[in-house]
Amino acid sequence: MPVKHDIVNEIIERADIIDIINEYTRLTQKGKNYMGLCPFHREKTPSFSVSREKQLYHCFGCGASGNVITFIEKIENVDFQGAIKILADRLGIDIQEEDRPHSKEIEILYRINSIAGRYFYKNLYLREGKNAYTYLKNRGLNNDDIRRFGIGYSLPRWDGLLKYLKSLGYDEEIIEKAGLAIKGTKGYYDRFRGRVIFPIFNEEGMVAGFGGRVLDDSKPKYLNSPETIIYNKSRTLYGLNIARKSKEKSLIIVEGYMDCIALQKYGFLNTVASLGTSLTLPQARLLKKYADEVYICYDSDIAGQEATLRGLKILDKLNVRIKIVSLPEGKDPDEFIKLRGKDDFSELIENAIYYKEYLIMRLAQRYNLEDLEQKSRFVNDALRVIADVEDEIEVDNYIKMISGLAKVSINAVRTQYDKFVNRRSEVFKPKMYINGNNRDNRYMNENFQKDIDRLENAYINAEKIIIYNILRNNDLEPDIYEKINPDIFEDEFIKKVYKIIYLLYKNQEDINEKRILSELTEDDLSRFLDLMKGEYPINIDIEKFIEDFLTYKKMRVLEEALRESKTKGDSKTVMELQKQLIRYRLSLAERGYVYVRK
């Protein structure tokens, strides 16, 4: 149902474009306007201008421009109604048609959470809270720390908090909406029972939710508030209410409550926690809003390392400078700083390495660099990591690093790098436009047709590039697999390999070379090994590559249908098919690149 016009006007009036865009790209005031890196294309020099006075933005690099609503439409990939809903949610504006005091409800929920937080805090000092208080003391927290972070305890009673809130006049339904009660078959009961409670504050310092930790071995170890209209875990960073006020231009991100509390207690006030190992895109945008540089300090275990990699990709897409803090094996930030102290942790921060170094070091650990074949694969994979680096000095340093790790001459690595970069540049090339009559632009059909003709003999190579990059990239978006039907592949062997990949994806299993090999016949093994040793383009935008490839496949079908329609003399169908082809060609032209083959 369309949103009322007056509500749209209210959103436009209340949504400050600077505050909204700052969540996606960091803006710096330059005179009357604000400047930053454009979130719609990669750039190193800020060309994205935002006017608070006019409530408009414009990028001098890619030409993107508009108001706060068009910005949300583009950045979140939603339509007008979707953008309105996102902005309304952030502003606490009710966009429902029914006459419901939504904003009033938000106010009530925050009030209930505040009351619950004080209730939990007082419980900690009751006789029943002794074990929880002792636990916190043993974790190195004093009374000032407990008060500062509002830590408390939920009594091991079925409905202790519920009764307390009801005595203050709140009904069970609104307590459930706050995420503090659960409705069972016999009525309502407390969500948190017998747990140490950590209030989760939003950016403004209001209690949006809670996290509870058990004191024994019962499961789950941690229990968080459910999603409510005031709490969204994927859009929340624990400790940000304190970190945003620090004078640091960087943020340290850790996994859990105690890691964040410990680092802030020792003076690292610019610490936040992601409340889990998976850093989300909204969380990454929050980080970018408040920091120029982010230090990722997850646990040193395998889960922590994999979380680090996921976080790297998300932050890199937002052009955030990223450094990795390497903790000693088996330690988390909380344990390390208590054992070694503030100075040693500061040294870890100073010695943090940039994420591309981190990725290269991880690759080096995966391969036996004494083996010639594995050494070659390491060099190739390491070059994939740096293929998008534009600074020549930075590239030179990475080449020296790869050379040293692989014990291969710098010249050899440089030569291989040049091959990869040249090959990569030929995977996608911008197409040309001509001005027809100064009133519109038309795609160069004759050149495009030549591309189509040359493409006939290039699909197999493109299919190999897709498989190669899928297996070399652990962070593909899941919808990529849904877009590709195995039958789209023409080469029967490639089709077989992708069917295995697709099945692993559906079964939520790890997609790697070892699993592929275990499913192939002996006759196919050598072909697969040859495929993975091939010198294919690296570090390409594989998701975009696949999108363009599928577009060409659709065009190929249309071209065949067009030829048949022309033979039959079906002018109406010919005209319709030509229109469809033009739409596809223009869509490729708008993306600026097409697949180019040899």
Q: Which helices and strands occur, and which strands form pairs?
A:
Blueprint: H1 5-14, H2 17-21, E1 28-30, E2 33-36, E3 48-51, E4 56-59, E5 65-66, H3 68-76, H4 80-91, H5 102-123, H6 130-138, H7 143-149, E6 152-154, H8 160-167, H9 172-177, E7 181-184, E8 187-190, E9 195-201, E10 207-214, E11 222-224, H10 240-243, E12 250-254, H11 257-265, E13 271-273, H12 281-290, E14 293-296, H13 302-317, E15 321-324, H14 333-340, H15 342-350, E16 353-354, H16 355-366, H17 372-386, H18 392-406, H19 410-425, E17 428-429, E18 433-435, E19 441-443, H20 445-455, H21 459-472, H22 479-483, H23 492-506, H24 513-519, H25 522-533, H26 542-568, H27 571-591, E20 594-595
Parallel strand pairs: 12-13, 12-14, 14-15
Antiparallel strand pairs: 1-2, 2-3, 3-4, 4-5, 6-9, 7-8, 9-10, 10-11, 15-16, 17-20, 18-19
Proportion of residues in extended strands = 5-15%
Question: On the 0-100 scale, what is the average pLDDT?
Answer: 81
* Helix content class: 40-55%
Count of individual helical segments: 27
Low-confidence stretches: 97-101, 425-457, 592-598
Radius of gyration: 28 Å
Largest sheet: 5 strands, antiparallel
Number of strands: 20
- From the N-terminal CA to the C-terminal CA, the straight-line distance is 51 Å
The largest beta-sheet arranges its strands as 1-2-3-4-5
Structural class by sheet pairing and helices: alpha+beta
Q: Estimate the global geometry from the Cα principal axes.
A: globular
What does this structure look like?
A hairpin with a 7-residue loop joins strand 10 (207-214) and strand 11. The protein has 27 helices and 20 strands. By secondary structure, the protein is an alpha+beta fold. It is globular, with a radius of gyration of 28 Å. Helix 11 (257-265) packs parallel to helix 14 (333-340). It is 53% helix and 12% strand. The strands form six sheets. It has a five-stranded antiparallel beta sheet, covered by helices on one side.
